[in-house]
Design brief:
Elements lengths: L1 E6 L5 H18 L4 E6 L3 H7 L5 H9 L2 E4 L6 H11 L4 E7 L12 E7 L9 E4 L2 E4 L5 H18 L4 E6 L7 H14 L5 E6 H10 L6 E4 L1 H15 L6 E5 L4 E5 L16 H18 L2 H19 L13 H11 L2
Parallel strand pairs: 1-2, 1-3, 3-12, 5-10, 8-9, 8-10
Antiparallel strand pairs: 4-5, 4-11, 6-7, 11-12
This protein binds adenosine-5'-triphosphate.
C-alpha cells in the first residue's frame, strides 16, 4: 500500500487533480495496487484561507506520504514548490520531452530528458537592492553540480537509447558559476566512459532544440536554464499539456506538470490532464525503483500506453488539436487502462 499526498493547486490544478484521482482510483480497482490518496491544499487559495501558501498540515502530510503529486499553483508558486524542493532536498528535476502520436509538434520521434539542478542557481531567493540597483546572487556549488551530473549519467544508462549527456551552460560569460558547473560535469563524465559527453552553450542548445531535437538524449543543466529549456522542449513535441516532471531526492520525490496554473483556461474543462497523468506515471516508476516493486513498473507502463492509445485514436483536448473536455479525455484514458 502506498500513501500518495496530492496538492490540488490553483487555476487548472483542481481539474487536473480530479482527473488524476479518477486514474488512481482505476489503478486501485483494476490493477490491484493499493493506493491511499490524501488531498492537500497549498498555493494561492491556501494563502488566502490560512495566511500561508504552504500550510504546516500540508507539509507534514507530504512528509508522511510515500510520494507526492502536486498540481500547479498560481502566484504563490515560489512559496510552495521552490520551498518544497529545497526543504525536501529534491535536487533533480527530471523533465522528459517525448513524442506522442497526432501532436501539433514541430518534429516527431523525439525522446529526450532534461535533468535540471533543482536547489540553487538564481532560485535561492537571495535578491536585494543597493540604491536604485537590484542584485540577485547566483550560487552554483560543486556538491550540487556533481549530484545532478551523476544523476544525468545514470538516466542515460537506464534509458539505453543514444547514451549521451549534453551539459548546457554559459561558461563563456558566467565564468565562475557556469565554469564550475561545466568543470564538475566533465569530471563526472570521466566516471562514465561508455556515455558520450558534450558541452553546449545555452543559446546554442535553445537553437538546436528547434533545429535538431532528435540529436539530444539527456541534457544536464542549471536551475533557470533547465526551466526555460524544458518549456521549449515541451513545445517542440506538442505543448505543455503533455509535459510531466519529477522532483527527485535521496528518499522522497514529488511529481508535477511542467506548466503553471494556466488561469486563462481554468474552470473551462479545457485543460489537458496528460501532463499530470504522465507525472503519475513517473511517480510509479520511481516507487517501483525505490521499493523494487515490479507492480509499480507495470502500472507506469499501463498509464503511459493508455494515454498513448487515446491520442493515437485522435481523441484529444483543445491544446493539442482536439475537442474533448478534461473529463471526457480522462474517461477515455480510464477506459484504456486494463
Ligand atoms: P507559469 O508562469 O507558472 O509558467 P502560466 O499560467 O503563466 O504559468 P503555463 O500554465 O505554464 O503558464 O502555460 C502557458 C499556457 O499554456 C497557458 O496559459 C495555457 O493556455 C497553456 N497550457 C498550459 N498547460 C496546459 C494544459 N495542461 N492544458 C491545456 N493548455 C495548457
Amino acid at each position: 500500500m502506498y500513501k500518495i499526498s496530492l496538492i490540488t493547486g490553483d487555476g487548472i490544478g483542481p481539474e487536473l487533480s480530479e482527473s488524476v484521482i479518477k486514474v488512481l482510483e482505476t489503478v486501485n480497482d483494476k490493477l490491484n495496487l493499493r493506493l491511499e490518496i490524501e488531498k492537500l491544499e497549498a498555493g494561492d487559495k491556501a494563502l488566502a484561507k490560512t495566511g500561508k501558501a504552504l500550510p504546516e498540515p500540508t507539509l507534514h502530510a507530504v512528509k508522511r506520504s510515500d510520494a507526492c503529486l502536486k498540481a500547479p499553483v498560481g502566484e504563490s508558486a515560489a512559496d510552495v514548490i521552490v520551498v518544497l524542493r529545497r526543504m525536501l532536498n529534491l535536487y533533480a528535476n527530471i523533465r522528459p520531452a517525448k513524442s506522442y502520436p497526432n501532436m501539433p509538434a514541430l518534429k516527431d520521434n523525439i525522446d529526450l530528458v532534461i535533468a535540471r539542478e533543482n536547489t540553487e542557481d538564481l532560485y535561492t531567493g537571495m535578491e536585494f537592492e543597493i540604491g536604485s540597483t537590484a542584485v540577485a546572487l547566483r550560487t552554483i556549488s560543486e556538491q550540487a553540480s556533481k549530484r545532478i551530473a551523476k544523476y544525468a549519467f545514470l538516466i542515460a544508462i537506464q534509458r539505453d537509447l543514444k547514451r549521451k549527456v549534453t551539459c548546457v551552460h554559459k561558461s563563456n560569460v558566467m565564468r565562475k558559476t557556469d565554469g564550475l558547473f561545466s568543470r564538475v560535469c566533465s569530471e563526472v563524465a570521466r566516471e562514465f566512459p561508455k556515455i558520450e559527453f558534450e558541452q553546449m552553450y545555452v543559446d546554442a542548445c535553445a537553437m538546436n532544440l528547434i533545429r535538431q531535437p532528435e540529436s539530444f538524449d539527456v541534457i544536464v543543466t542549471t536551475n533557470l536554464f533547465g526551466d526555460i529549456l524544458s518549456d521549449e522542449a515541451a513545445q517542440v513535441v506538442g505543448g505543455l499539456g503533455m509535459a510531466p516532471a519529477a522532483n527527485i531526492g535521496e528518499s522522497f520525490a514529488l511529481f508535477e506538470p511542467v506548466h503553471g496554473a494556466a488561469f486563462d483556461i481554468a474552470g473551462k474543462q479545457a485543460a489537458n490532464p496528460s501532463s499530470f497523468i504522465l507525472s503519475a506515471k513517473m511517480m510509479f516508476e520511481w516507487l517501483g525503483m525505490k521499493n523494487k516493486d515490479q507492480k509499480c513498473f507495470e502500472v507506469a507502463k499501463k498509464l503511459e500506453s493508455a494515454v498513448y492509445g487515446v491520442v493515437k485514436d485522435g481523441i484529444k483536448t483543445k491544446d493539442i488539436g482536439g475537442d474533448k473536455t478534461t473529463a471526457e479525455f480522462t474517461q477515455y484514458v480510464i477506459s484504456n487502462i486494463s
